Amino acid sequence: MGVITYLDHAATTPLRPEVAAAMAEVHAAALGNPTGSHPPAQRARRLLEEARDEVAALMGREPGEIVFTSGGTESANLAVFGTLAAALAGSPAGTWSGESAGVGDRPLVLCSAVEHPAVRASCRAAGERWGVGVVSLGVDGAGVVDLTALAEAMSEQARLVAVMLANNETGVVQPVAAVVDAVRRRSARPWVFTDAVQAAPFMDLSEATQGADLVSVSAHKVGGPVGAGVLAIGSQVPLSPLQHGGGQERERRSGTQDVAGAVGLATALRLAARERGASAGRVAALRDRLADGLLAQIAGAHRTVPTRVATLPGHLHLCLAGVEREELLVALGDQGVCVSGGSSCASGALQPSHVLAAMGVPDDLARGSVRFTLGWGTSGDDIDRALSIVPAVVASLRRHA
Predict the structure, then answer these.
(1) Quick one: 213 and 305 in the same domain?
(2) How many other CB atoms are found less than 10 A from the CB of residue 354?
(3) 133 SS3 class
């Protein structure tokens, strides 16, 4: 293939050279199992714990609160199932027993209507498996969670509240601090889980997730490797493991740790934190130039999120009337312009967007939705090329519709 214009950083961000170098250095010398006692194992243990210390500092957590996982999906599953399993087992998080309680007494999970599928599906599965009640928290037309609905949904049965830091499709930043405050005003009992996977490249997690009890991060969304992630778990949060075996990660996630992946994640988060100020401004300027150009050249183009609403610097979500997103994505891909129709968690299939549905976007408009996402490697040339190709492709599809 010829020139590639990669504008799909929300799906996965290319591995940063510095991260690749750090991971290669890990493998350059003998590396053992971190649980062993010989020199290669001791080296592995040292590298793992140094990575844990760095990740903890960057997330505003204690090292003992950091659990390394395989990525955002596992972290979400562990956050949902781990806390609920502990509650159902009679831990300090709750004493409900499915055999003895009525429907009105069953524990509840409050989950925003625009959560990532890894979170939504985990909550739904918990409901099917254990009879946990799942309450979907509505959002406004911009996709921001309704704090009044959250306050009204709170009850003594609430065990977990899941509200992401920034949406993977639209980039909308959620008021996590206000969510935490709304929950704590009603009850000290439910844990607050925030999916910070999309926000990690551009937001200070130690500040933005302050007060949240559980926070998930995925390395490959911040220039790190695929297959590495973190769930930060507050020291007061009881959690039942999903994986059993050797008792690694303080018995919260058994299995031999991926030392190189942990080092790669720590390196990627460090680079993001170091460059955040300059990077956010540079990427936002490129995003705005792309938005202005596309809106000016494509009749019927609609910016899904109003500019007054806070979004991540790299996200631009448009709905293009008169085109089908499947055809648009294929046609753009043929021209080397890589974008997405929304969430990239499905196995290649494009499903109707639950995010746009929750926002009240009409179906005929949502059918032409497209997500452009920029990141650390995006250049002005990428924007120029997209502006020269996308309007022409849209015009061609409309002519042949």
Answers:
(1) no
(2) 17
(3) strand
- The count of domains in the chain is 2
Q: 371, 341 in Cβ contact below 8 A?
A: yes
Q: What is the DSSP track for 23-66?
A: HHHHHHS----TT--SHHHHHHHHHHHHHHHHHHHHHT--GGGE
Shared domain check, 293 and 169: no
pLDDT, average across residues 75-90: 93
Q: Tell me phi and psi for residue 353, to 5 degrees.
A: -80, 115
C-beta atoms surrounding 396 within 10 Å: 12
Dump pLDDT digits (tens) for 193-207: 999 999 999 999 999
For all residues of the chain together, what is the average pLDDT?
Answer: 93
Round to whole Å and give the CA distance between 218 and 73.
Answer: 8
Residues 28 and 176 in one domain: yes
What is the extent of the structural domain holding 43? 17-270
Q: Does residue 109 sit in the same domain as residue 231?
A: yes
278-299 tens-digit pLDDT: 999 999 999 999 999 999 999 9
Mapping DSSP to helix (H, G, I), strand (E, B) and coil, where does residue 349 land? coil
Residues 263, 280, single domain; the answer is no
Q: Please identify, among 218, 247, 270, the residue that sits at the C-terminal boundary of a domain.
A: 270
Both 342 and 384 in a single domain? yes
Residue 150 has pLDDT above 60, yes or no: yes
Q: 46 pLDDT exceeds 80?
A: yes
Distance CA 378, CA 381 (A): 8
Residues 259 and 344 in one domain: no
Helix (H) or strand (E) holding 302: strand 301-303
Average pLDDT over residues 320-327: 94
Given the residues 111, 123, 338, 345, the one annotated as active site: 345
Instruction: Provide the whole-model pTM.
Output: 0.94
Asked if pLDDT for residue 400 goes beyond 90, the answer is: no
- For residue 101, the model assigns a pLDDT of 40
For the question of residue 345 being annotated catalytic, the response is yes
**Same domain for 253 and 234:** yes
Question: Where does a domain end: 270, 288, 304?
Answer: 270
Q: Is the per-residue pLDDT at 364 higher than 60?
A: yes
